[in-house]
Each structure stands twice: as structure tokens, then as C-alpha cells.
Design a protein that fits this description.
Elements: H1 25-37, E1 41-45, H2 49-52, E2 66-68, H3 74-87, E3 95-101, H4 102-108, H5 110-118, E4 124-129, H6 169-175, E5 180-185, H7 189-201, E6 206-211, H8 215-218, H9 225-234, E7 241-244, E8 247-251, H10 261-265, H11 278-298
Parallel strand pairs: 1-2, 1-3, 3-4, 4-6, 5-6
Antiparallel strand pairs: 5-7, 7-8
Bound molecules: thiamine diphosphate and magnesium ion (MG).
């Protein structure tokens, strides 16, 4: 143990003592990503819950090289680290990870992420997808699913909540010829870790999108974090898939006895309004069609 009073004695990539909510899917995913990536890893972290909860000055939960970027430029920061390490002839054997929330990824940082992919840089970009700007009070992002209640898309007489569809970031990554494109959830941490290990073995631009349950933003119970994330995958609403060199390489199948989207939606207060009348039920039927479409598209 060091004499530094701010150094905690745990041998762990993310130490306890952070301020993430009880049942936070994001911190759970981050810890498992880092355990899979191992100690020779540098992380650039976009602004968001992942950073705010872990690095309040003068403390840091990270027991490894970690650097905070602005909201939009975790990708560019890794490009700089890559160049600096190459100049110092220290690039070999180092995993570079940039991560950010869905707001940082789908919206605010997308231009710089696009540039990093275009330059074909050897970085794993991870989107911690909790489907809204949670750190600043649950505003809708390009990742927010249709009909979700967020503070900028409240349901009411004229609306069922968010009236826009979730943007397809996996397809956007594929259009950039990323060597690895995958999705995972915090409901299956072994699959998540396998994906991180597989992606990091590949050279070039890589994208991994992880659905992470947000207790205050989704109005879920902390005890349901894993269950809700699993249901997202099992209903087909959040397809868990993997592309290598642009080709579909693996999918996580849905159970043979189909699980209806209601099972997923009803555990989350952000969809509560859909269960209150016939019109809401019609919206749920539309969401079921999205899940059915995914099941058909990927053969889940
Ligand atoms: C350019 C810029 N715009 C807005 C903000 C304010 N801001 C900081 S974090 C955040 C929300 C982050 O949302 P997301 O990326 O989804 O991460 P989450 O907190 O949900 O994990 C916002 C809007 C900022 N820091 N910089
Ligand atoms: Mg978010």
C-alpha cells in the first residue's frame, strides 16, 4: 500500500467508494470490461455518469491509467495517446479504450468518432448505452427508444413520450468498416467479457455497444438491473450480435417460447404510461413489431 492517503488498498480496476447508484448497470459493465481488458489498458472517458461517479477530485476509483475527456472527444483523445505511444515506441501490447455514454456516442461525439474510425485507428470504442443523457437529468438522446418517458419527452395528452426511433449505431459503425462491431448487455457479463477480449485481439477500429440499465432514468428497481437487461435481449428489442470484418459472426438467440415486449416494458416506469389505456396498448403492439423485426432480421 502506498503512503499516498488517496490511494486505496484494493487490487481492482474500479474500486468501491464511487458514487454510482445502487443497481447501476453502467458501473457493472465498466468493471467487467476492465477486468477483461487487463492491466495494460488506457481508458479515455467522455463526460457522463461513468466519469462523474468515479472521479470526484481528489479521488479516483480507477486503479489503472484513465483520463477524462470532454463530452465529445474521448475518441480524439485516444488518437493522441496512440500517436504519443508510437512516438515513444511504447505502443505494442497496450489496449486503448475510449468510452462514453449514448449521448456522447450517438449525438455529441459522433463526428469525432467517425473521424477516428475513418483513420482506422487501433482503438476499442465502447458506448455505455443507458438510452438517455442520464448524468444531467434524463434528457432524450439519439439512442432513446420510441415512447420512452424522459424529461425532454414527457408523455401527455398529445404524446406517448419519445416519438423518434432509436438510431442504429451498429450500422453506422459498419458503414465505417470497423473490424469489429458488437452489442452486449449488462445482463450477460460473461458474453460481454468475451466480446471485449475478442475485440482487443483485433487490430483496427472496433465498436462495442453495451445496454446498461439505469435505475433512476428507467424507473426500475435496483434488484431488477440484470433481469431488465436480459429481457431487452430475450424479447429481441435489443439484438445482441457480433460482426467481424463487416460480416455477421454471432448472435445471442431469443428463447424458443417467445417473451413478449410487455415483460420488458412493464418493469420500467419510463414506459408506465403505455399500460394505462387502449391507445397505449396499440403503441406496445408497435414496439412488439420492432422486436419481431429484429428476430427476423438476425434469425434470433
Ligand atoms: C459539449 C457539452 N455539452 C453538454 C455537456 C453537459 N453534459 C455532461 S454529461 C451529459 C450527459 C451525458 O449523457 P450520456 O453520454 O448518455 O452519459 P450518461 O450520463 O447517460 O452515462 C451532458 C449533457 C457537456 N459537458 N459538454
Ligand atoms: Mg446515457
Amino acid at each position: 500500500m502506498s503512503d499516498n492517503k488517496y490511494t486505496m488498498p484494493f487490487k481492482h480496476p474500479i474500486n468501491p467508494g464511487h458514487s454510482a447508484c445502487a443497481g447501476c448497470g453502467e458501473i457493472l459493465a465498466m468493471r467487467h470490461v476492465l477486468e477483461a481488458a487487463g492491466p495494460n489498458t488506457i481508458v479515455a472517458n467522455a463526460t457522463g455518469c461513468s466519469e462523474v461517479t468515479t472521479s470526484q477530485f481528489p479521488r479516483s476509483s480507477f486503479q489503472m491509467p484513465w483520463i477524462h475527456a470532454d463530452f465529445e472527444n474521448a475518441s480524439s483523445l485516444t488518437s493522441g495517446i496512440d500517436a504519443a505511444l508510437k512516438f515513444k515506441k511504447q505502443r505494442d501490447g497496450v489496449n486503448l479504450i475510449a468510452w462514453g455514454g449514448d449521448g456522447a456516442t450517438y449525438d455529441i461525439g459522433i463526428g469525432l468518432i467517425s473521424g477516428m474510425w475513418e483513420r482506422s485507428e487501433d482503438v476499442l470504442y465502447i458506448c455505455l448505452d443507458n438510452e438517455a443523457y442520464m448524468n444531467t437529468g434524463m434528457q432524450a438522446s439519439g439512442s432513446t427508444p420510441i415512447n420512452a418517458n424522459t424529461t425532454t419527452t414527457p408523455p401527455g395528452k398529445e404524446s406517448f413520450g419519445n416519438d423518434l426511433h432509436k438510431k442504429n449505431m451498429l450500422d453506422i459503425a459498419l458503414a465505417h468498416s470497423c473490424v469489429y462491431v458488437g452489442s452486449a448487455t449488462c445482463g450477460n457479463l460473461i458474453d460481454l467479457q468475451n466480446k471485449v477480449k475478442k475485440a482487443l485481439k483485433m487490430k483496427g477500429p472496433k465498436y462495442l455497444q453495451i445496454l446498461v440499465t439505469c435505475v433512476p432514468g428507467w424507473y426500475t428497481e435496483p434488484k431488477d438491473t440484470i433481469k431488465v437487461a436480459k429481457l431487452a435481449q430475450q424479447t429481441g428489442l435489443y439484438p445482441v450480435v457480433e460482426y467481424v470484418d463487416g460480416k455477421l459472426a454471432a448472435v445471442e438467440n431469443c428463447p424458443k417460447d417467445k417473451i413478449k415486449v410487455d415483460e420488458y416494458l412493464k418493469l420500467q416506469g419510463r414506459f408506465k404510461h403505455l399500460f394505462q389505456n387502449k391507445e397505449g396498448q396499440a403503441q406496445i403492439a408497435e414496439i412488439q413489431k420492432i422486436a419481431d423485426g429484429n428476430i427476423k432480421k438476425f434469425g434470433l
